[in-house]
Write a structure and sequence with these properties.
Elements (H helix, E strand, L loop, with lengths): L3 E9 L6 H17 L4 E3 L17 H16 L7 E10 L2 E10 L2 E7 L11 H4 L9 E5 L2 H7 L3 E5 L2 E3 L4 E6 L1 H4 L4 H7 L4 E6 L8 H13 L4 E9 L7 E2 L3 E4 L2 E5 L8 E9 H9 L2 H7 L7 E3 L25 H20 L4 E4 L4 H22 L3 H11 L9 H8 E7 L5 H14 L2 E6 L1 H15 L12 H29 L7 E2 L5 H6 L20 H14 L5 H6 L18 H5 L3 H13 L4 H11 L6 H18 L34 H13 L1
Parallel strand pairs: 1-2, 1-11, 2-3, 8-16, 9-10, 10-11, 17-18, 17-20, 18-19
Antiparallel strand pairs: 1-15, 3-4, 4-5, 6-7, 8-9, 11-12, 11-13, 13-14
Helix pairs in contact: 1-2, 2-4, 10-11, 10-18, 11-13, 11-14, 11-18, 15-16, 22-23, 22-24, 23-24
Family: In the C-terminal section; belongs to the NAD synthetase family.
GO biological process, one term: 'de novo' NAD+ biosynthetic process from L-tryptophan
GO molecular function: ATP binding; glutaminase activity; NAD+ synthase (glutamine-hydrolyzing) activity
Length: 694
């Protein structure tokens, strides 16, 4: 009997429709897996075309190119003597499925379609694919000619089956199936499957990693077995960062852990495990064995191949380990930094430009870029040739080696403080000091001439001169004068992003970074087409509370002492006139709510699916020690008024790193109207009736 089996789980930084690059990374992962003794190699979901192809899945080209890549894999000597499990879309009887294609020695063993599709939040799989609904059923799949010419097969099994090798039995799950209440691994385990595999396209959300780890470990805790999970990593073309975390678990305990954040394009996790440990673990679970005696069997595809060696008794096996989780502050430091690096190198730009105001949000964005520079230098120091090649191309210097994060930051990061007559010297000094400490190329400029010119045009045409409220102007005049300043900054940011390097005699352009946090977007506390309008925004899915904690983390871990004064200063837009040289305007006073309250409103609105009345009902209990029902009602009404008035701004929200499940991103995640009846008359009346009753 076979005992020690060696299996490999891969985390690959695939890119949607980059068939050339995706194939190269798959080959590298197979080479590494084989060199470490693995006999089975599992890759991420839809790894051949990249997970994020979206409506490109409708195109026959995507299917064609996926099969062309598969043919390259099948005919290569690199894939000999190892079971390879790859992901790609497959059209079967004119229905498109999200599939695993499992092959060995130029023969396809099984095409296994996905049973439970991910269709919530950022996922839209039901838009492009159909779930396989025929449990334990296999059909003939007629292979395209380009595959027949390589394999010599005309048809292969297609459906819900498991693989029976000479020494064990393997069953596949695909991503969402692990999260489903009726996961296939339950019935497969009862039917004698000893190794479960899961190919995922799972993205990063703050504080989510533990849920995935717990699910994998619990999958084998009650039923016994080995669980192998592979996942995509990196930015494959949109707002999501796939966070790796490849892992291998046995009998409820983790035995191998992959990294969650890294700049490695290919990471391969290999574990050698004793099948007898699975068998003995299962033997004493009588409830499992009773259920197993009644289970309906799966179709088995026989494979004349063993995952174990004949002398497996002498092979050392892996022992359980303790999973190390990142703190939320570490996640913010690493996840968006890796996402920015992928975006920068794949967009082939020369760096970033950030309007740096001296406040918490733009400072947090600057710290994430600085963290990215740290990651790049660390990767190069550890011998990552891909990162070194990308860094040299970005800075346009063939012999360059990034060794010091501050020096690398100077080359690829430009910060710009855009002062007006309403800006304080304090914020100017804070921005300048932070730029010095992270090493960015820093610009100070004044926008007053541009603002006066624009307002002057309006005055010349209309004969009217708008005034700020403090000088007797109306609220409409006051808002318009603030918005002009904000929008001028956006125009200047793009001008400097395009021409700053040119002015310095350097090639290339810069990506403009935005820095509106998730709470401000939810409330609409931003000017449409101001500096929140940018190419990308690394903090757009992160709350103000988490950003403050992240700033503290940067003070302690990066020794950025300039952040201390930024942390202690009240958040302000600095768009209204100073009073005695001091800032009189603050964000929370402007918004009519605190950032802490905004986070609660956001989670109730999106995660708890609460409308105005339900939110009121929940908050009168949550806040019963600090607010009367009437005060709660007033707060809820104010939030929904402001949210609905400003919802139109979400349609033009800068693409942001997705980190929170209460993001108001209208483009992909939070689908709602942007023209509301902002009186909410029926809903608010229900609240008023409840207040009266209380």
């Amino acid at each position: 009997m076979g005992r020690a089996v060696s299996v490999a789980a891969c985390a690959l930084n695939q890119w949607a429709l980059d068939f050339e690059g995706n194939l190269e990374r798959i080959f590298r992962s197979i080479d590494i897996a084989k060199s470490r003794g693995a006999r089975y190699r599992l890759g991420p979901e839809l790894e051949i075309c990249g997970y994020g192809c979206s409506d490109h899945y409708y195109e026959s080209d995507t299917l064609l190119h996926s099969f062309q890549v598969l043919a390259k894999l099948l005919e290569s000597p690199a894939t000999q003597d190892i079971i390879c499990d790859v992901g790609m879309p497959v059209l079967h009887r004119n229905v498109r499925y999200n599939c695993r294609v499992i092959f060995l020695n130029k023969k396809i063993l099984l095409i296994r379609p996905k049973i439970s599709l991910a269709n919530a939040g950022n996922y839209r799989e039901l838009r492009w694919f159909t779930p396989w609904s025929k449990a334990r059923h296999v059909e003939e799949y007629f292979l395209p000619r380009i595959i027949q010419e390589v394999t010599g097969q005309e048809t292969v099994p297609f459906g819900d089956a498991v693989l029976a090798t000479k020494d064990t039995c393997l069953g596949a799950e695909i991503c969402e199936e692990l999260w489903a209440p009726n996961s296939p691994h339950i019935e497969m385990g009862l039917d004698g499957v000893e190794i479960f595999t899961n190919s995922s396209g799972s993205h990063h959300v703050l504080r989510k990693a533990h849920a995935r780890v717990d699910l994998v470990n619990s999958a084998t805790a009650k039923n016994g077995g080995i669980y192998v999970l592979a996942n995509q990593k990196g930015c494959d073309g949109d707002r999501l960062y796939y966070d790796g975390c490849a892992m291998i678990s046995m009998n409820g305990e983790t035995v191998a852990q992959g990294s969650q954040f890294s700049l490695e394009d290919v990471e391969v996790l290999v574990a050698t495990l004793d099948l007898e440990d699975v068998r003995s673990y299962r033997a004493e679970i009588s409830s499992r064995n009773l259920a197993a005696s009644k289970v309906k069997p799966y179709p088995r595809v026989k494979v004349n191949f063993a995952l174990s060696c004949s002398d497996g008794v002498a092979v050392p096996t892996c022992m359980p380990i303790q999973w190390r989780h990142h703190s939320p502050e570490e996640e913010i430091s690493l996840g968006p930094a890796c996402w920015l690096w992928d975006y920068l190198r794949r967009s082939k730009q020369a760096g970033f430009l950030l309007p740096l105001s001296g406040g918490i949000d733009s400072s947090a964005t600057a710290c994430i870029v600085y963290s990215m520079c740290h990651q790049v230098c660390l990767a190069v120091r550890n011998g990552n040739a891909d990162v070194l090649a990308d860094a040299r191309r970005i800075v346009n210097e063939e012999t360059y080696v990034p060794e010091d994060p501050r020096e690398f930051c100077k080359r690829i990061f430009t910060t710009c403080y855009m002062a007006s007559e309403n800006s304080s010297q304090d914020t100017c000094n804070r921005a300048k000091l932070l730029a010095e400490q992270i090493g960015s190329y820093h610009i100070n400029l004044n926008i007053d001439a541009a603002v006066k010119a624009i307002v002057g045009i309006f005055s010349m045409v209309t004969g009217q001169m708008p005034r700020f409220s403090v000088f007797g102007g109306s609220s409409r005049e006051n808002m318009a004068l603030q918005n002009v300043q904000a929008r001028v900054r956006m125009v200047l940011a793009y001008l400097f992003a395009q021409l700053t390097l040119w002015a310095r005699g350097m090639p290339g352009g810069l990506l403009v970074l935005g820095s509106a946090n998730v709470d401000e977007s939810l409330r609409g506390y931003l000017t449409k087409y101001d500096c929140s309008s940018a190419d990308i925004n690394p903090i757009g899915g992160i709350s103000k509370t988490d950003l403050k904690n992240f700033i503290q983390y940067c003070i302690e871990n990066f020794q950025l002492t300039a952040l201390r004064s930024i942390m202690s200063a009240p958040p302000t837009a600095e768009l209204e006139p100073l009073v005695d040289g001091q800032v009189a305007q603050t964000d929370e006073a402007d918004m009519g709510m605190t950032y802490a309250e905004l986070s609660i409103y956001g989670k109730l609105r999106k995660i708890a699916k609460a409308g105005p009345y339900s939110m009121f009902c929940k908050l009168i209990n949550m806040w019963k020690e600090i607010c009367t029902p009437r005060e709660v009602a007033s707060k809820v009404k104010h939030f929904f008024r402001m949210y609905s008035i400003n919802r139109h701004k979400m349609t033009t929200l800068t693409p942001s790193y997705h980190a929170e499940n209460y993001s108001p991103d209208d483009n992909r995640f939070d689908l709602r109207p942007f023209l509301y009846n902002t009186t909410w008359s029926w809903q608010f009346r229900c609240i008023d009736e409840q207040v009266s009753a209380l």
